[in-house]
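Ticket #4471: structure export looks truncated?
Reporter: QA, pipeline team
Priority: medium

Steps to reproduce: submit the single chain below to the structure queue and open the exported record.
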Amino acid sequence: MYVETLCRKICNMSFSWNMSHLPFLSDKDRTLLLITMRSWFCKEPIDVSGLNNPDLFWEYTVRHGLSGILGSMVLNNLLNHPGINSRAVDWYRSHLLQHEQSLHVCRRVEQEAQLAGIPIVFVKGPAIALQAYTQEPGVRSYSDIDVLVPSREEALRLIRTLTGKEAEVPEEIRWDRLMHPGRLHIMLRDWEVEFAHPMDPSPDPMFDFIRMHQNQLFKIPGPEVPFTVPDVSLHMIFLIQHMVRHLCNRLIWYMDLAVLHLAHEKDLDWDFISHELEKLELKNMASLISLFCIQQVNPAFPRIPFGKKGWNTAFQKIVVSPEQIHSTLSLHHESRVLHYYTRILSTLRYVLIADPHPQTSLFRRLPCHWLSVRLVHSQGWKSSFWIPFFQALFVGIYICLFPIVWLLCYSFVGIFLAEKSFLKSRRNDAQILLSG
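Actual output as written to the record:
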């Protein structure tokens, strides 16, 4: 029954930040949206009376996860707009209620894990709300509960305990095994709970992270562990790698990092964080993310040093630019060509987001391993022959098509800049016509 309920929920999930095709937000409104992040962080008032399109501004706010921030600002007299006030406060209070409901589900999971002797840890959602937004949990919205478990067997055992089902949970559908391997889902008190477990071999950086820090991450819940959340430095690494895997396209993720740093400045070990991100081959993207946090949220946020530049550096810089972050919500409306290029490049994201290496063309230095594992896992093949086979095949294809991939990447840059210039000139022409 819980699988059927989950399928219905997923099918009805039309109001999703990942499937948005909104009209283009004006430069002024986009700038105000970015300013609200720093205004809330610094507790400074902001004047939004000059919004060009308050309804569209609100839509972008919701899709970027900033609705709770606007609600907090309205309640603290930092923001006032007749088209936003009531909606923002309603959403803020809704987030508060959802947070309390999710904690009941988390406690249920902890109780069963404690009785079964299964170590777990919560990440993202309720964990970041408790670790970072302690004073205002209504600011942070989330729609599911993420739990890391040391093994698939323990995840299945915990799920059986929670649902009362003795039979093994059905395998995920083949496409889901390709896109989201190593995860099992259930519905518990109307909440989707996702259990992620390590896989060997690893299909993406998240599982490399879990494998590298398995001893430090997991704890058996009990009286001495009031809420099972990761060490803040480990959670910071996890949040950054999660952002990078999703091409950094939600503003609330940047806010999470800034607020977590503010709440635990003395506890965060940035040398350790930088070193571990380098081991995950994500240090360059993390450096750009930290620069965004400095420029848009908190000037005191630590800067992670940028490593070696490579052929994909230009793409990485565009991914973490405010223009690209906003355009992911309006690609269908403004640019079918740009959307097409983004789709092509997103399928290659593990090659594009990984730090460059001098031995890029060598078998062991390409991120093709992650893609190979995903493909073999999605087909359910057990033989150890297939992963190195597909890895060698992808490396061969990569070496043959490298000039084309390189050209795609830089043509993407050119098209993005050209369309940005075109849209800017079009808005200027419209302003001239209106003023005339």
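Status: closed, not a bug. The export was complete when the record was re-opened. Leaving a note from the reviewer for reference: Strands lie at 121-123, 144-148, 183-188, 191-196.
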